Amino acid sequence: MAEQKTQERCWKHRKNSRQLAQKKGSRPMQWKMPPIGLRIMKSAVGVLLCFLVSYLRPDGIVFYSQLAVLWCIMPYVSNSLEMGIQRTIGTMIGAAFGLIVLIGEQTAGIGNFQDNPVWALIISLCIIPVIYVTVLINRKNASYFSCVVFLSIVVNHGMDENPYLFVLNRVLDTMIGIILGVAINSFRLPRKKHKEILFISDLDDTLVTVKESLTPYSKVELNRLLDDGARLVISTMRTPGSMVEVLSDIRLNMPVIAMDGAALYDIGEKRFEYVYVISHETAETVMEFISENHFHTFITSILEDMVVIYYGEFQNHAEEDIFATMRKSPYRNYLKRKLPKGDTPVYFMLIGEMEEMRGFYEKLLCQDFAKRLKILFYPSSDYKGYAYIKIYNKNASKENMAHYLKDTYSFEKVITIGSEKGKCDVLIDKADHNRMVKEMRRIYEPVIWSKN
Question: 203 is in which domain, residue-wise?
Answer without folding.
Answer: 197-275+398-444
